[in-house]
Amino acid sequence: MPQIKIVTEVAGRICAVVASAGGSIGSGDDVVLVEAMKMEIPVPSPAAGKVVSILVSVDDVVAEGQTIALLETESNWGGFFMTRHINAVAAIVLAGTTISPVLAQEVKLPTSMAFTAYDTGTSGFNIAVGVGKMMKDKYGSDVRVLPAGNDVARLAPLRTNRAVLAWMGTGSYFAQEGVFEFGVKEWGPQALQMTLSTVDCNGLSVGVAKDSGVKEWKDFRGKRLGFVVGSPALNQNALAIIAYAGLTQKDVKIVEFASYGAMWKGVINNDADGAFGSTVTGPAKELESSPRGIVWPELPAGDKAAWDRVKKVGAFFNPHDVTCGAAIESSKPLKLATYPYPIATAYATQPVDQIYGLTKAMIVNYDMYKDAAPGSSGLDVKKQTKQWVIPYHPGAVKALKEAGQWTDADEKYNNDLIKRQGVLADAWKAYNTASAPGEPAAFLSGWMAARKAALAKANMPNGFED
């Protein structure tokens, strides 16, 4: 019987060995836990089988990509490149006119694959599950959705080809730019690209405990704002929202939590007063039904100066009339904010055919999952935000073109973003070649200066001014 290697996706210290040599294990079951960046990150088995040997022990230090166990499987496991061939017939709708059904290009999906997403119960996780179920029902593909509490943990499996899509938020942008937690030697700028994303009736803002007495954002001064360790996207987003009232991190009390779910639990348990998320996220619903209750202080678009402050901290935000979510009535829209979330994200290095197949499957089978979870309907191909802050993958572009949802202007904008990723990659390579400092704070400071200079030389905006 064939053997495969099980490797760790991150460097760190082995803090627990879950599986046993000689024992049986299922696909996706944890083999070991690796302590990295103040988190315990599981290393799952990519297939079912018998554990031949465990090659590490507790307290061992492991490198990214290191083999930690050997697995004996019943049959060859081709990972993410075993494909099931399906001929799909799509009725394409253009500008409101139905065209006769045509034979779509053959869709190829892995027989077994993984997505990563936010914690269980969140809107991002629930939407990913709905899409995965569609792929199981339509194509027979077994899809496992891996919950992860922060952006680093969401991207690690994608980076090492253990997942095919990461359902991200603005962390995709910060990773592209190589800032915050991605401005470290182990990461740097990541060439991330979009497939499909969601903008729907929900909004993205800071939910506030109703019993805190906050009615407008100016009332949040001195309150406790939840942060997630290792998740710069969420933290920066929260700061962008409170900037509407001219508040900064110095004007609130920051309370750190290990994960997104833990942060919202902290608000419910009165350890914090506000947490960033989608209005339809499961934890917001929990807060609504708790004794504390929930409110969403508004951000009216008419206050131009306030919105200038928001965009200075989070350029990816836009005003949005929100009609769904915790404590929100569809007949009484709230003036909040939004950006595409979740974003089904891939690496530029992933094969065009692979990403085309995934994107095409989501487009032509939209009706199978559009009602699977709140926000799912925002994946409608006609609702895509095609000129955002990270580019679309060529495989996704191919599928969008076939759906009649791609223009010459979209192509030019996309190519400019891909060029930006090239500038950032070259700057990172040059910086690391030039004897960059070893101390983390000095390394990050030096990188941000090198990054700024490279973008200025290319006549591209920095996006993260001092």
Automatic annotation (TrEMBL):
Principal place of residence: periplasm
Taken from the UniProt entry, a GO cellular component term is: periplasmic space
Pfam families in the record:
Biotin_lipoyl (PF00364), NMT1_3 (PF16868)
Sorted keywords for this record are: Biotin, Receptor, Signal
Q: What is this protein called?
A: TRAP transporter solute receptor, TAXI family
InterPro entries (UniProt xref)? Biotin_BS, Biotin_lipoyl, Single_hybrid_motif, TRAP_TAXI
Question: Which ranges carry the Lipoyl-binding domain?
Answer: 1-72
Q: Does the keyword Metal-binding apply?
A: no
Q: Which PANTHER family match?
A: ALIPHATIC SULFONATES-BINDING PROTEIN-RELATED, TAURINE-BINDING PERIPLASMIC PROTEIN
Q: Provide the family line.
A: Belongs to the bacterial solute-binding protein SsuA/TauA family.
Q: Which GO terms describe its biological process?
A: alkanesulfonate transmembrane transport
In which domain of life is the source organism classified?
Answer: Eukaryota
SUPFAM superfamilies assigned to the protein according to its UniProt record, in alphabetical order: Periplasmic binding protein-like II, Single hybrid motif
Location(s) in or outside the cell = Periplasm
